[in-house]
Amino acid sequence: MQYFGKKTVTLIMTLFLVSVAAFLAFQIIPGDVVGSILGTEATPEREAKLREELGFNDPPVVRYMNWITGVLRGDLGKSWRYSKSMNEMMPVAELIGDKLPVTLWLAVLSVLLIVIVSVPLGVFWAKSRGRAADAVFSVLTQTAMAVPSFFLGILVTYLFGMVLRWFTPGGYVSYQDNFVGFLGYLIFPALSVAVPKIAMTARFLRNSLLTEMSSDYVRTARSKGATEQRVMYGHVLRNALMPVVTFLGMIIAEIVAGSIVVEQVFGLPGVGRLLISSISTRDLPVVEILVLYITAVVIVVYFLVDIVYRMIDPRISHK
Amino acid sequence: MEDRVGMFPKNENPMIQIQNLSVCFGGTEAVKNVDLEIARGEILGVVGESGSGKSVTALTVMGLLSESGRITSGRVIFDKDVLIESGERLNRALYRRYQGQRMSMVFQEPMTSLNPTRRVGAQVEEMLMLHTELPRQQWREKVLESFVSVGLRDVEQLYNCYPHQLSGGMRQRVMIAMAVILHPDLIVADEPTTALDVTVQNQIIALLREINQKEHNAMLFITHDLNLARRLCHRIAVMKDGRVVETQSAKDIFENPREEYTRSLIQAVPTRVRCKARPGESATGTGSAVSGEIRRPVLEVHDLNVYYQEGTNSLFGRRKRRRVVSGADFVLYPGEVMGLVGESGCGKSSLSKAILGMNRNVEGEIRHFSTRPQMIFQDPYSSLNPSRTVGWLLQEPLRAAGRLDKSRQMSEADMRAAACDMLRRVGLDESCMNRKPSQLSGGQRQRISIGQALITRPGFVIADEPVSALDVTLQAQIMELMQRLQEELGVAYLFISHDINVVYRMSDRIMVMKDGEIVEQGDTEELFAHPREAYTKLLLQEDLE
Prior knowledge:
The structure holds two protein chains of two kinds. By secondary structure, chain A is mainly alpha-helical. Chain A has two domains: 1-83 and 91-98 and 272-319, no CATH class; 100-269, MetI-like (MetI-like fold, Orthogonal Bundle). Chain A has 15 helices and two strands. A two-stranded antiparallel sheet of chain A has the order 1-2. In chain A, a hairpin with a 2-residue loop joins β1 (78-85) and β2 (88-91). In chain A, α1 runs antiparallel to α14 (284-312), α6 (100-127) packs antiparallel against α11 (228-258) and α10 (216-223) packs antiparallel against α11 (228-258). The longest helix of chain A is centred in the middle third of the chain and has 35 residues, at 179-213. The model of chain A has no long low-confidence stretch (mean pLDDT 85). By secondary structure, chain B is an alpha/beta fold. Among the domains of chain B are: 1-102 and 185-267, P-loop containing nucleotide triphosphate hydrolases (Rossmann fold); 112-183, no CATH class; 387-455, no CATH class. In chain B, the strands form four sheets. In chain B, strands 6-7-8-3-9-10 form a six-stranded mixed β-sheet, sandwiched between helices. In chain B, α4 (120-131) crosses α5 (136-149), α4 packs parallel to α7 (168-180) and α13 (390-404) packs parallel to α15 (442-454). Chain B is globular. The model of chain B is unreliable at 1-6 and 273-292 (pLDDT under 50). The chains are: A mainly alpha, B alpha/beta. The A-B interface holds A 6-7, 9-10, 13, 215-217, 219-228, 230, 234-235, 238-239, 312-315, 318 and B 62, 64, 92, 95-101, 104-105, 107, 109, 112-118, 126-127, 130-131, 162, 164-165, 175, 178, 314-317.
């Protein structure tokens, strides 16, 4: 428990440092924002007014404090590009609010697919060492790893959407209208994200299993008269999963942060598209929040990996 | 020791028979036409150097041969049942009826032989789960019983421990508890004490003997240590290059060895009978400041404490400072050998690291009076960079010295010549220059390590267990080499070992270390003849048994 407390404090401090770094980074980006927002309507008076409104005249520390306290209260600032009505700028929270669940659910589904498929696949693969299946898996996973996910997305759309007609390409179902339908639609982009990662994870687990299989305690287990099933599930799997957990953590972080391409291919209204458009229109408050979101997710995932790792490996907690 | 000879007339109902067994890996035969049998209640020792096929024989008996191994002739008969025969595939299902239940095995390395992520209680329990109908509620009690029977204490607490929380001796006892819990007819012990300290080693040997007497089961004891086999076994078989060269009672094999090889094994064992004779050394005095001539020491250590910062990668962990060596105080003179004995964890290596400046977390005084001291390491397999050639490795200390001190810079040709010269001095051929360490044997690699340490002509060298990973005959050769080089080059050694006999053979003076303190130091002969400290007596006596 003490460990957990310490870890949590470390987590919070890391998040704080990340927020400072994100904030500072956006202060350094060159170019006059006010001029670009006002465009042709810019006059010195208007520029000065807007500058005051956006708080650009405050010292950086004050601006950071305003920004971060706002973020903590749920006020993520206002977009410079989108407007809610004629005289009001769009709050970033509202802009992100209905897009974030799409991205998050896509990630959750992908990760579930990866875990559910890759672990049995890795085990089966390790067991079939030296047989024909070994070579088949080797070729299949290498191919799956090599295919870029946008191309996989096109293939999935063609196969399941056009040939099998299991879903309508482009027929996105909003989660607010029909949650089950939403998940059903999301399965296919999730598949495109997951397939290369499944191949990687299965390969990684297989190698880890084979390494563990040659260790001394496996010989001990066999000398006790344990069956191969028992050796695999009673002894080897848990030890072999340890490096895989770290690997999965990296993969999860990558998926949560970067399913941008797949969102484009499947026409999903996730944050990926928003991020791209915000960068190209220099909508910095939005980009700033998305960067904070992505880094925070990565840090939290690693925090969870640490905890899981500790649960699997008793050697860490007793050191 | 009781006389065990003649207790077992041959062929009296053998528990296990190995008949004409040959085992092949790829194209090479690891075991050749081996015939062995063990009667009920008998302990058979199989002695041989690494690569002699003794472990392969044991694994074949247990049905644990890896898939690349093939039985090309003969059979293994266990209590009249043929377990495996040449030409047949290993019948795992058949074997599983015997493994654990009627035959069990104790391995060399108790740390890696236990599953690191499962509690030791559960690991012993697995035996009951696999082979008995015992209801689950009684498992725990049964396991605790077997823990007690192998001399473990605080068994309730122990039950929930993970292997890494136990000492080496305790782990090996857990392994033995696991092996005996179902009272098997045969116990195969493959170097069960090699990874343990001398004092623990003796306890384990005593325990195995006690089990044998109580349970009257057959035991196959594999070891490279002839002395150890003599202390435990009724009969001893000597193996070389996959063949059994000689099988006799333990007593006869020492008194009337029939084979030349057996004789050479017996002679190679470092014993205290043979006195270390070195020219120019009188038997009296400290071996250093003799003949009134005052020599400047190469190393002075005064009142040295060495600490370790306990690592933590958390932002808030209080960093604990642990003292591993306290109050070390000694002087090393040119051309002498200072032995340092102690069990693992006593601070021997910490002391040497502090002397070499690899750990600067120290208090006290270390004064060097020579150029950069060097080190010879224990494991010649992992201490040499596998991707470099021998020539490159030998020249590396010269390159490093040249980089640190411009005046010692040498031309490429000079370095090569120095490497060639050193290669000859350590008894290797020039053709080795372009080979990689993986193409050399263990003994040859250790010669390279020694050459590496001596090529810069340091005033003194720290040798940290330089022969512990080697076979007895190699041990003797390497020690001879080190002594010869010392005479040629006049270097001083700080010679670290856990083996008091090895230290005796090498050293002019000896320091005994325990729990970070040097409890006794003195002239070798003096210390062996009249040990003052109880711990020194224990070390000496344990080994004489």
